[in-house]
Specification:
The relative contact order is 0.08. The protein has a domain at about 35-110. The protein has a three-stranded antiparallel sheet with strand order 1-2-3, with no helix packed on it. Helices cover about 35% and strands about 10% of the residues. It has helices at about 1-5, 20-25, 45-55, 55-70, 70-75; strands at about 85, 90, 105.
């Protein structure tokens, strides 16, 4: 903004925040990301049984994410307007997808 106003003649002088570009770490580089280990495939049925025994919205959301391969931001933002029960699809809007395009998920009767 300051660069624009300077270039447009609305202000004079350097952008005082420019020094912060070299002083602050780049976005996303403030800590090391550590991923969880994958569950061994023979353990999946037992885990799903334990998950289904839980009576919570969080458990249902996690189960849905596992069955649909949806990302957390996609699943937690899901609305019924995005679901077509007759076609058994869920269309995730571009704004919640990393690919920035709409994507239809096929829904299984369990999910």
């Amino acid at each position: 903004m300051l660069d624009y106003t300077t270039a447009s003649g609305f202000r004079v002088g350097d952008n005082p925040a420019r020094a912060l570009l070299t002083a602050l770490p780049k976005a996303g580089r403030t800590h090391k990301v550590e991923h969880h280990a994958a569950l061994a495939w023979p353990d999946v049925p037992g885990f799903m049984a334990e998950l289904r025994a839980e009576d919570s919205t969080t458990a249902r959301c996690l189960e849905f994410m596992i069955l649909s391969a949806a990302r957390p931001s996609e699943a937690t933002g899901m609305t019924w307007q995005e679901v077509d029960p007759k076609a058994r699809t869920w269309t995730v809007p571009a704004g919640r997808r990393m690919a920035l395009t709409m994507f239809p998920f096929a829904l299984h009767s369990i999910s």
